[in-house]
Amino acid sequence: MAKEKNNQNTENQLFAKIIAHAKEYGFVFPSSEIYDGLQGVYDYGQNGVELKNNLKQLWWKAMTQCHENIVGIDAAIFMHPTTWKASGHVDSFSDPMIDNKDSKKRYRADNLIEERIEQYKQNQQLDKAYALEAKLNQCLNNNDLDGLKQIIIEENIVCAISGTANWTDVRQFNLMFSTEAGAVAEEASTIYLRPETAQGIFVNFLNVQKTSRQRIPFGIAQIGKAFRNEIVARQFIFRMREFEQMEMQFFVRPTTELEWYEKWKTLRLKFHQAIGLKPEKLRYKVHEKLAHYANAAVDIEYEFPFGFKEIEGIHSRTNFDLSRHQEFAKKKMEYYDEETKERYIPYVVETSVGADRLFLAILCNAYTEDTGIDAEGKEKNRVYLDLHPLLAPIQVAVFPLLRKEGLPEKARQVFELLRYDFRTIYEERGTIGKNYTRQDLIGTPFCLCIDHQTLQDDTLTIRYRNTTEQIRVPIAELKATLYKEINLAQFLQQLNQ
Ligand code: GAP
After folding, report:
1. Residue whose CB lies within 8 A of the most ligand 1 atoms, among 41, 196, 312, 362, for a mutation test
2. Which residues pair with 245 in a beta bridge?
């Protein structure tokens, strides 16, 4: 028990360090921080935006460039309000919430119970854990809010702030943000900020199919903002109120959907490994409790410092969404299959990953404390971000050893040689050691040093971030050497093998 607590403390400390690192080195800032921030909302800084854009670009290319039968769209955030009636979000996109009357703090009732289940598991009280899990699932499936409260009372779950069990009843809380569209109050209508990007794909299914001349099976990919009024926005950018999703809906012939579901399960895990997430920190978690319209669903989970958590969902959603839009919009959503000579509403396999959540996984995965003793017997105390070269905000940093004797001029020439091929920076201020350290901290994989020998024989040193090893290469071979390490085409090709 004490050991568990110690582990948890170290993990919390590690997560706190990662959050501090993200701020200190320009990755993520609390939104409107000068006003003390806004809960569940964050801004990306100069390095964060590069990393996030690189991630989005890799995902986009992995979908559209690697698959001849996937095209992209960019739908609006606002959609006709009936969209959300049809999708079921108006009636049932909610979480069960409960308030503690003493502290006035609001919790998700299911999360409070899940935490208790987790405690039982950690204490090896597995019978208790599974029994409670079954009870929780039963209540959630039956929308039994009184049942949830009953569990909280029976388990004597108390508020972390007040320490009391003085709870309100459990109520459903719709997570959609709404606003008014239209300048004249009487004519204004309630519209929603989309809680997922997927519906923009469903309502455009026929537009895209007809104009792209794609035949089933084919997919539509989209990256965009989504908004959810999360009851408890926490764990930094893990659960946000404004976030970005990268979703792909793959439209297939009915009865083939489970085959495609298995394929996408494999492909998506491969992607996460290819961008550098450690295989042992990734796992599938199959959903036991399925939404009524799904016939299979799995999460890809990553082991964050606070435990294994979902980063991506892969869902076989049957023809639920398209059928509902057909019903509510009174427009046919059918597809004529020339091969089978049949008309049907396609089935859909969806892959849905949060860009911010995956960003957080990447950051946690990359954060490395390099301690121990180095080759010269000195104690190492180095932090670096082990980012994939295609994700790193800066790929190559160029430094002259000294700020004189013709070295800056030569270093600038090297910078000019590389800057249009790689994300490259030039820096002549500061000592070389400090410059290396700064680049380690933001995950730059390659640092180049121009010294006196460079002026004599046109060679320079490349320093590798993870090993700190330095090798000397002729400038004439520099681009080819770097291309071996930073190669988008190779990355994409390997995804398709
Ligand atoms: N269209 C299906 C869908 O939206 P979801 O499981 O609700 O499914 C998919 O969300 C992914 O979006 C999650 O796996 C997660 O990565 C991300 N996501 C969901 N809610 C989020 C939030 N509040 N903050 C950050 N990312 C979130």
Report:
1. 196
2. 224, 354
Confidence of residue 2 (pLDDT cuts 50, 70, 90): low
Say yes or no: CB of residue 389 within 6 Å of ligand 1.
no
Q: Whose CA is nearest to atom 16 of ligand 1?
A: 354
Q: Supply the pTM of this predicted model.
A: 0.92
Whole-angstrom distance, CA of residue 428 vs CA of residue 91: 60
- Sign of the alpha-carbon torsion through 486, 492, 495, 496: negative
Longest dimension (CA), the chain: 81
3-state SS, residue 136: helix
Instruction: State in Å: Cα 48 to ligand 1 middle.
Output: 20
Name beta bridge partners: 471.
Answer: 462
**Predicted local distance difference test score (pLDDT) of residue 62:** 98
Q: Do 420 and 378 meet the contact criterion of CB atoms below 8 Å apart? A: no
CB 242 less than 6 A from any atom of ligand 1: no
Ligand 1 touching residue 386 (CB < 6 A): no
pLDDT of residue 1: 46
pLDDT level of residue 148 (50, 70, 90 thresholds) = very high
Helix, strand, or coil here: 227?
A: strand
pLDDT given for residue 232 in this prediction: 82
Q: For 418-428, write each residue's pLDDT tens digit.
A: 999 999 999 99
Peptide bond into 408 cis (omega under 30): no
Ligand 1 in contact with 230 (CB < 6 A)?
yes
- Given a cut of 80, is residue 9 above it in pLDDT? no
Tell me what pLDDT residue 293 has.
Answer: 86
CA distance 208 to 335: 12
Sole residue written with tokens 């249009």: 420
d(CA 353, CA 479): 34
Q: How many C-beta neighbours within 10 Å does residue 414 have?
A: 21
In DSSP terms, which residues pair with 167 in a beta bridge? 100
Q: Is residue 85 helix, strand or coil?
A: helix
Under the banding of pLDDT at 50, 70 and 90, the label for residue 414 is: very high
In this structure, the number of other CB atoms found within 10 A of the CB of residue 51 comes to 24
Residue 52 structure tokens: 């996030």
Q: What is the pLDDT of residues 454-489, one digit of tens each?
A: 999 999 999 999 999 999 999 999 999 999 999 999
What is the secondary structure of 235-284 as a DSSP string?
TTTTS-SEEEEEEEEEEE-TT-HHHHHHHHHHHHHHHHHHTT--GGGEEE
Compute, in angstroms, the gap from residue 111 CA to the centroid of ligand 1: 16
Please state, in angstroms and rounded to a whole number, the distance separating the CA atoms of residues 495 and 62. Answer: 7
- pLDDT value at position 233? 76
- Over 70: is that where the pLDDT of 180 sits? yes
Hey, is 183 helix, strand or coil? coil
What does the block give as tokens for 36?
A: 């003390």
- What is d(CA 88, CA 122) in angstroms, rounded to the nearest whole number? 36
